[in-house]
Amino acid sequence: MADAIKGPSVDRPRDAVDSEPSLVTPATRAAPRPAVGRFRRFGAALVSGTRPRPLELVVAATLLGLLALATYGDHVRQAGFVTDDWWLRAAWLLHTHGGDVSEVSNFLDLFSARPALGVYLALVQATLGFHQGMHLALAVATAILLSLSFYLLLRTLRMPPLHAGVIAALTLIFPISDSLRLWAVMGDGSWALALLILGAVLTLR
Length: 205
Hints:
- The chain is mainly α.
- It has eleven helices and no strands.
- Helices cover about 70% and strands about 0% of the residues.
């Protein structure tokens, strides 16, 4: 009697459930996440050989500055003059009669064979005075400029940003000589190399 009330049973195939429509379409399942897409585009940009852009150089300069702060920050705060730094400061005070800028020609006479270097050192002495930390910070700043110039040269030659950035970072923390970073008066060497590299960049463009 109970079976009569239930009515006849209908056998359904086992895969009938799988054939029912799903709320998740194949297009929805295959759609990539926005964060994953951005990450992939960023990774592709790091290894691409496109021309450098101004924003890219700003980012590179910021990262190199942070690296220089972590590497040379303690030296700038705690170190001071060595050897020629003291001689240069004494020569400036002696030949300018205590720092009188009107007497700067007497100081420039010491660098008659290298007048551009004399002008640069005179500007540094007149501007920074006896603040040893500022002199060391200037040497580190010129090192950042040199590394950034090298990065720009490599990018102009279409080297990918990731590779060029690693080389620029190694140039900053492993110079050809420690004196270029730890010796205040040797910062002019970084200036000269940076100007040379920037000249090469202008030639390639």
